[in-house]
């Protein structure tokens, strides 16, 4: 079948809107009509060429929602018409990782996913007879996409797809990192570096957890008002200080915060985020994705003296099990997705969504097909 899609033909070039050919779903796969997709900084990161797993030409996009239009052989848990959110972190419930109960990082399809292929090692997309690669197992910048059944969360049939698409990445990641990875408790102090979609969701999660102080740090002060509305108690622009921001935070918080979150992808900020943690127990969670070849560093003494460095992918969330509940929470009004949607655009204007992100004007642009 034909599908309108925004294709990344080359590194660092605008996406091109074309009509792709999409093959039907094979064994264990599902054809999904994407109705809406967010644009996450990770899409821009991969398009920039910084992602060691970036493959071109490909269909980016991993923050979408849609409707099942066809199921392949052996698919038993999904039917035509079901509302779904594609998952870049699958949940097979059978692999060593799923069974461990220690991680959400299912590895059942991860190897082929990282090569831009479906689990059988082939691609379902082509253009003018040449293969186009998948991305993160989701490729939500195509109106029709093929996804393994284990990479789809079935959600409430009445879910507003134009909003809950954001649960496919950003909001789930930020909130999940606070609750599942750091396990922030009432009264804890928290510092959140980077107040984009991920950082603001972390702010929201920290308020939900009952954090006593939530420091929001960003070099773009335009982000501060919304951060305050979502629960940040202190807003800090590192450019207002002529000394390392970790020193400022340690002073402001009587020795450092209990938890910090890096939501930017900047390895220097990752260091600040670790070093602003309290001696003896402070924990820093890396969420931001850094480019190929970049490495983090600190004095080992920072860890010797009790600080902990962790990372979080998709907020530690097991998508098939937990996303339906998050969608219900959003539908009941207990999880407000509206503040994150600063712009909406049709697929044809998707490149503007990247511009809005880079200029710092948007939190999330939702693309409709
Ligand atoms: P975004 O562009 O919306 O937000 C980034 C924010 O960081 C912006 O507000 C920007 O002003 C701020 N910033 C940039 N440089 C800064 C600096 N030196 N100091 C302080 N603030 C600075 O991006 P996003 O969509 O929120 O994504 C944030 C990061 O999280 C990206 O690296 C993305 O790839 C990553 N990410 C990771 C996961 C995961 O599962 N680990 C999931 C989603 C996104
Ligand atoms: N492909 C990159 C790493 C990219 C990365 O870290 N991705 C995050 C999700 S970002 C969503 O916006 C993640 O969950 N990673 C876990 C995984 O299994 O990919 C690289 O460096 O190779
Ligand atoms: Zn993302």
From TrEMBL:
| InterPro entries named among the record's database cross-references | ADH-like_C (IPR013149), ADH-like_N (IPR013154), ADH_3 (IPR014183), ADH_Zn_CS (IPR002328), ER (IPR020843), GroES-like_sf (IPR011032), NAD(P)-bd_dom_sf (IPR036291)
Mind telling me which Gene3D superfamilies this protein's record contains?
Medium-chain alcohol dehydrogenases, catalytic domain, NAD(P)-binding Rossmann-like Domain
List, alphabetically, the PROSITE patterns matched.
ADH_ZINC
Catalytic activity, as annotated: S-nitrosoglutathione + NADH + H(+) = S-(hydroxysulfenamide)glutathione + NAD(+); a primary alcohol + NAD(+) = an aldehyde + NADH + H(+); S-(hydroxymethyl)glutathione + NADP(+) = S-formylglutathione + NADPH + H(+); S-(hydroxymethyl)glutathione + NAD(+) = S-formylglutathione + NADH + H(+)
Q: Which domain of life is it from?
A: Bacteria
Record key words, sorted: Metal-binding, NAD, Oxidoreductase, Zinc
CC cofactor:
Zn(2+)
Does the entry feature the keyword Zinc-finger, yes or no?
Answer: no
EC supergroup of this enzyme: oxidoreductase
Residues of the Enoyl reductase (ER) domain: 10-367
| UniProt family annotation | Belongs to the zinc-containing alcohol dehydrogenase family. Class-III subfamily.
Q: What does this protein do?
A: Has high formaldehyde dehydrogenase activity in the presence of glutathione and catalyzes the oxidation of normal alcohols in a reaction that is not GSH-dependent. In addition, hemithiolacetals other than those formed from GSH, including omega-thiol fatty acids, also are substrates. Also acts as a S-nitroso-glutathione reductase by catalyzing the NADH-dependent reduction of S-nitrosoglutathione.
Q: What is this protein called?
A: S-(hydroxymethyl)glutathione dehydrogenase
The top of its lineage is: Bacteria, Deltaproteobacteria, Bradymonadales, Lujinxingiaceae, Lujinxingia
């Amino acid at each position: 079948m034909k599908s309108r899609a925004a294709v990344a033909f080359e590194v660092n070039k605008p996406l091109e809107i074309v009509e792709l050919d999409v093959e039907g779903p094979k064994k264990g796969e599902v054809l999904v009509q994407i109705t809406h997709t967010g644009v996450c900084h990770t899409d821009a990161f991969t398009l920039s060429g910084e992602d060691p797993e970036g493959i071109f030409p490909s269909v980016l996009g991993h923050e979408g929602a849609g409707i099942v239009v066809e199921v392949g052989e052996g698919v038993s848990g999904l039917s035509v018409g079901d509302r779904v959110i594609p998952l870049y972190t699958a949940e097979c419930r059978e692999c060593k990782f799923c069974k461990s109960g220690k991680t959400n990082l299912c590895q059942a399809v991860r190897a082929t996913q990282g090569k831009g292929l479906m689990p059988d090692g082939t691609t379902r997309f082509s253009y003018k007879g040449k293969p186009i690669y998948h991305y993160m197992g989701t490729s939500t910048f195509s109106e029709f996409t093929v996804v393994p059944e284990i990479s789809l969360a079935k959600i409430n049939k009445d879910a507003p797809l134009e909003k809950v698409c954001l649960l496919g990445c950003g909001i789930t990641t930020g909130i999940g990192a606070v609750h599942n990875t750091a396990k922030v408790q009432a009264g804890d102090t928290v510092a959140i570096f980077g107040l984009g979609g991920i950082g603001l969701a972390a702010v929201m999660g920290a308020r939900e957890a009952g954090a006593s102080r939530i420091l929001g740090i960003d070099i773009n002060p335009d982000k501060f008002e919304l951060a305050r509305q979502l629960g940040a108690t202190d807003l800090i622009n590192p450019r207002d200080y002529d000394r390392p921001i970790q020193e400022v935070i340690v002073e402001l918080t009587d020795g450092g915060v209990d938890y910090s979150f890096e939501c930017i992808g900047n390895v220097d900020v990752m260091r600040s985020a670790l070093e602003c943690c309290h001696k003896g127990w402070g924990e820093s969670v890396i969420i931001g994705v850094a480019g190929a070849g970049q490495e983090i560093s600190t004095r080992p003494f920072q860890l010797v003296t009790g600080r902990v460095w962790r990372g979080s992918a998709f907020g530690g969330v097991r998508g098939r099990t937990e996303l339906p509940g998050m969608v219900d929470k959003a539908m009941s009004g207990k999880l407000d997705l509206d503040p994150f949607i600063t712009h909406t655009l049709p697929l044809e204007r998707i490149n503007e969504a990247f511009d809005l992100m880079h200029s710092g004007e948007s939190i999330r642009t939702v693309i409709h097909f």
